[in-house]
Amino acid sequence: MAVGTVLVTGGTGYIGSFTALALLENGYEVVIVDNLYNSSEVAVDRIEAICGKRAAFYKVDVTDEAGLDEVFAKHPEIDSVIHFAALKAVGESGEIPLEYYRVNVGGSISLLRAMTRANVPNIVFSSSATVYGDATRVPNMIPIPEHCPIGPTNTYGRTKVMIETVITDHIDAQRNNSKKKGEPFEKWNGALLRYFNPCGSHPSGIMGEDPQGVPYNLLPLLGKVATGEREKLLVFGDDYASKDGTAIRDYIHVLDLARGHLAALNYLRENKPGVKAWNLGSGRGSTVFEMIKAFSKVVGRDLPYEVVERRQGDVLNLTANPALANAELKWKTELTLEDACADLWRWVENNPKGYRQDPPAELLETLKAGKAQ
């Protein structure tokens, strides 16, 4: 008997697919909706190859309210949503802001409206540490706690703040409306998960990040440099006030991050807190140069890079203080930066075309052998 059924928007994307896997491995049924704009349906097959269970998949855009209504109608058993579907590149968000507001904010409103019609009360939202902006502007806010003042410095971050506000207002209203009617109001809940820099791949080597265009994150870009697909890495600025002049980020293994979403969902279902925000991170900051060094070590050679000017909207330090999630969600990161680099290299080296190729037979054999033990 399934623990529950969860709709995962953006569930064929990087973090969405790993969260779908974690849900299936922990007794949930999963329904995925994704428009495949920057992902591949093959992710559904890889999830099944790893855990032996299959998520239902529908190609639906999160801004398509009628399409979402159909999915909820087909799956009346859905009781919760984990919401990833969004455009997510900081630089690009400043170039096409209207599209970011249309998809990220508009899509979230469409989703909440469809959820309300289907009487689905729980939402776990994939927010971002970018909501804090430059936390160094406030004394004693590094590593960043949840009570750090919100102040995004780019369009992407502003869409995340707006969605957090919409979810909060919506859940509060649903609770108040239910109270007035004398109906159980505690069932309406939302988790706002603010996290930092996801990285790594599945240790089996058959599942990882497979962006369809140019990746925007540091480690996937380093992976493409390592395979020769890209000539060099561009480092945006080496004049920050850090030990080596490059920006500091909190890197978190995608498996740990997926477990964090699972922990937040379980917390909502068990504790019914209304709306709560949690930071998911390791609490350790690493500079860009430290990451290049760590990944180069795994690859076995120095990877070329070039320092260019800073990107608009980038800040010095995004390191999480995850104490609240550690205490309340009983969650903390378990995998290291070295694990993330090793897992990513296994994925990239064996799957240079990502999901546009079959995984190497020996990796599948190793996976099967591990299951049989």
Describe the oligomeric state of these chains in a short phrase: single chain
> Secondary-structure element sequence?
EHEHEHEHHEHEEHEEEHEEHEEHHH
Biggest β-sheet strands, sense, barrel: 7 strands, parallel
Distance between the termini: 25 Å
**What order do the strands of the largest sheet run in, or round the barrel if closed?**
3-2-1-4-5-6-11
Overall pLDDT confidence: 96
The overall number of domains is 1
SS class: alpha/beta
EC number: 5.1.3.2
Catalytic activity: UDP-alpha-D-glucose = UDP-alpha-D-galactose
GO cellular component, one term: cytosol
Function: Mutarotase converts alpha-aldose to the beta-anomer. It is active on D-glucose, L-arabinose, D-xylose, D-galactose, maltose and lactose.
Q: Could you explain how this protein is built, in words?
A:
By secondary structure, this protein is α/β, with parallel strands linked by helices. It has a single domain, classed as NAD(P)-binding Rossmann-like Domain (Rossmann fold, 3-Layer(aba) Sandwich). The chain is 42% helix and 16% strand. The strands form 4 sheets. A 7-stranded parallel beta sheet has the order 3-2-1-4-5-6-11, with helices on both faces. It has a 3-stranded mixed beta sheet with strand order 12-9-14. It has a two-stranded parallel ribbon with strand order 7-10. Helix 6 links the parallel strand 5 and strand 6. The protein is globular and about 65 Å long. Keywords: Carbohydrate metabolism, Galactose metabolism, Isomerase, NAD.
